[in-house]
Amino acid sequence: MDPLLRLIIVIVQSYLIGSIPTALIISKKFFGFDIRSKGSGNMGSTNAFRVLGWKWGIVVQLADIAKGLVAVLLVAYFFDSQMPFENRTPFEDATVVKIIAGFAAVMGHIWSVFAGFKGGKGINTSVGMLIALAPVEVAIAAGVFALLVFASGYVSLGSIIAAMSVPGTMAIRYNLFGVQINGYHTLVYFCIALAVLVIYAHRANIKRLLAGTENRFQKLQLFRRLRHHH
C-alpha cells in the first residue's frame, strides 16, 4: 500500500475513533434524552457526571480516555515503518505516526462527525493518547488536576492547568534534571500544541471563570470541607 494512503487511513481511522460520542450514546440509550439538551450541553465527562450521575460519568470518562489510547495503540499494531514524508524528528517513524493518530482522535472528540461537528473538550482523549506517549507527565498532570479541583471545585480550571503542566513538566525534567526523554524536541512542541488546543476548547469556561459564573462542583471541594470540619 502507498505510504501516503496508509497515513491518510490512519488519520481518518483515528478521527472516527475519537468521534464516537460516548456520552450522547449513553444518554440516549439508557436515559432516553440527548445529553446536549441538559447541563452545560457539552458531551464530555464533566457534564456526564453532572447530568447522568457519577457511575455513568466514570464510564464516559474511561471510554473517552480509551479512544485516545486505542487510536495510538492501533497504529502501533498496524503501521509498518514506511513514511510518506522525510522524518526530520529524532523519533522513530512509528512514534511520529502515533502522535498524528492521537491528535486526530482528539480532533474527533472535539469536533465529532457523528454529532454535528461538536463534542467534548478533548481532555480525556488527550490523556489516553499521552498515557501511551508520556506516562510520567500524565501522572504529574493528574496530581495537578486533583489538587486544583479539590481546592477550587472547578473541573475546567483543573483541566486547563493540567494540560499546561504536561509540556512544563517535560521541559523541567529534561532541562533541569537531565532526564533523557526520547525525541524531547518533538514531543515538547507537540504537548504545547495540545495544551493550546485544550485551552481553545475551554475558551467559554475561561470567560465564565473570569466572570465568576463558572459551574463549581462543591462536593469536590475537599480542602474546604476538611477546613470546616476542623
What topology does this entry show?
Elements: H1 3-19, H2 22-31, H3 45-52, H4 54-78, H5 93-110, H6 123-133, H7 135-152, H8 155-175, H9 184-201, H10 203-211, H11 222-229
Helix pairs in contact: 1-4, 1-5, 3-4, 4-5, 4-6, 5-6, 6-7, 7-8, 8-9
Helix content: over 70%
What is the arithmetic mean of pLDDT? Answer: 90
Q: What is the radius of gyration?
A: 18 Å
**Number of structural domains:** 2
Beta-strand fraction estimate: under 5%
> In total, how many beta strands?
0
What can you see in these coordinates?
The chain has 230 residues and is mainly α. The chain has two domains: 1-109, no CATH class; 134-230, no CATH class. Helix content is 71%, strand content 0%. The chain is built from eleven helices and no strands. The chain has helices spanning 3-19, 22-31, 45-52, 54-78, 93-110, 123-133, 135-152, 155-175, 184-201, 203-211, 222-229. Helix 1 runs parallel beside helix 5. The longest helix is centred in the first third of the chain and has 25 residues, at 54-78. The protein starts with a helix and ends with a helix. The mean pLDDT is 90.
In short:
The protein has 230 residues and is mainly alpha-helical.
What key phrases describe this protein's structure?
single chain, 230 residues, mainly alpha, 2 domains, 0% strand
